[in-house]
Structure to design on (292 residues):
């Protein structure tokens, strides 16, 4: 049992990074009733994210899953800015979703720590980096935690709540509250490379790439076999394209460095990333999306 929670009520939530994950997190946070500020480096990235959130909410209304009132209120609660320091200074809770590069995340956490009020909790959506290492760049490691969301954020039910070495019970409790307001289920995981889901997923995706490289079967047939034979909702190669092959590669490189040889990234995946074939977001990955 946790002691009675001793965190301040969370009203304002900032999301840093308006990419695939950040915009989804901003959407579910606004739907959960928080005043949300979405931060990125360029205005045009923010405008794009804002439009995608609007489109998702509209689709939710058309499908009868979101009420028009919730749609309007969520849009009302959502702001965007390129001024990270200003957003941080008004935040009770921050969720970082910038690319999976440890030096970038540490730099951002150091800066957030400088600008956020002392009570603010700082969460990272890292897929596999060390929460403890990220927390060490701040003076509040007890208030740093991992919240690992899944893509697409507005549809996927789970968040892995990840404890770093010094994450406090109050920080875990506050993050559980935020997750519940976002209408998500949680599992608590102790920090370890790749957590539960990324480690298994990266291995399946890597193995599928090795099969493609070895000519075991076509991409379509590898995906079809895993979907229809093993009952996965998506094939590992189409999932890699959805997640982004650069993000997938970074997770594998980290698992390889920390857990050993069996996680060595498939050379074909490395080649695709070098060619800029990153998946859906660049129009081509394993599959070609240019005409879709
Ligand atoms: N894509 C997934 O399926 C998935 C799932 C779970 C977790 N994650 C993790 O979420 C994080 C983000 O992944 P993504 O797929 O959304 O990446 P993405 O590349 O789609 O988005 C990252 C965004 O961060 C922005 N950014 C870069 N530097 C910044 C800075 N200094 N300040 C503010 N914004 C900055 C970029 O402009 C970009 O819009 C990564 O750590 C990734 O491992 C991704």
């Amino acid at each position: 049992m946790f002691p009675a929670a001793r965190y301040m009520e969370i009203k304002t939530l900032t999301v840093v990074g308006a990419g695939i994950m950040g915009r989804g997190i901003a959407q579910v946070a606004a739907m959960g009733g928080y005043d949300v500020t979405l931060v990125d480096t360029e205005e045009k990235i923010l405008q794009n994210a804002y439009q995608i959130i609007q489109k998702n909410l509209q689709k939710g209304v058309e499908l009868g899953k979101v009420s028009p009132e919730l749609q309007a209120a969520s849009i009302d609660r959502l702001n965007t800015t390129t001024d990270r320091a200003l957003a941080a200074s008004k935040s009770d809770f921050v969720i970082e979703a910038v690319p999976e590069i440890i030096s970038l995340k540490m730099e951002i956490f150091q800066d957030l720590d400088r600008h956020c009020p002392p009570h603010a909790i700082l969460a990272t959506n890292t897929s596999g980096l060390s929460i403890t290492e990220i927390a060490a760049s701040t003076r509040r490691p007890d208030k740093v935690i991992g919240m690992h969301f899944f893509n697409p954020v507005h549809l996927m039910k789970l968040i892995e709540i990840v404890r770093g070495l010094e994450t406090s019970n109050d920080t875990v409790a506050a993050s559980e509250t935020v997750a519940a307001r976002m209408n998500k289920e949680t599992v608590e995981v102790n920090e370890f490379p790749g957590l539960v889901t990324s480690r298994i997923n990266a291995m399946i995706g890597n193995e599928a790439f090795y099969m493609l490289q070895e000519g075991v079967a076509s991409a379509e047939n590898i995906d079809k076999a895993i979907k229809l034979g093993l009952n996965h909702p998506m094939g590992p190669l189409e999932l890699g394209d959805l997640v982004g092959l650069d993000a997938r590669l970074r997770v594998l490189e980290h698992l390889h460095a920390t857990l050993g040889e069996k996680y060595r990234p498939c050379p074909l995946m490395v080649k695709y990333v070098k060619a800029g074939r990153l998946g859906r977001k660049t129009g081509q990955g394993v599959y070609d999306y240019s005409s879709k």
User: Anything to note?
Assistant: The beta strands are 12-16, 35-39, 78-81, 93-96, 121-124, 144-148, 158-163, 185-190.
